[in-house]
Design goal:
By secondary structure, the chain is mainly α. It folds into 2 domains: 14-50; 52-92. Helix content is 75%, strand content 0%. It is built from 3 helices and no strands. The chain has helices at residues 16-23, 27-50, 52-88. 0% of the residues are buried.
Length: 92
């Protein structure tokens, strides 16, 4: 049985009503809508930057994941070193 293909459109996550609404606008209306959405995004990013709770949680997650990040870094270095030894011996 074949799987249904997902919509590959970059706008697949947008609701149909928004897409139809914008498609029916004049060029000037579309430009105004773009400006509105851009201003909304500026406000959204400012709110995210000012969100102290989010910052604290991000810092906590970074601290909690530090041991795994360091272990991953060391494992990659060890693998890279071992590969370089094999290459130096002509084995790779």
């Amino acid at each position: 049985m074949r799987r249904m293909k997902k919509d590959k459109s970059p706008w697949a996550d947008l609701d149909v009503e928004f897409k139809e609404n914008v498609a029916g606008m004049t060029d000037e209306e579309i430009s105004q809508r773009i400006a509105e959405v851009a201003m909304n995004e500026v406000e959204n990013l400012a709110a995210k930057k000012a969100d102290q709770d989010l910052k604290e949680k991000r810092d906590a997650a970074k601290f909690a994941g530090e041991q795994y990040s360091e272990a991953t870094k060391m494992n990659r270095l060890r693998i890279s070193f071992a590969h370089s030894i094999l290459e130096a011996r002509g084995k790779r």
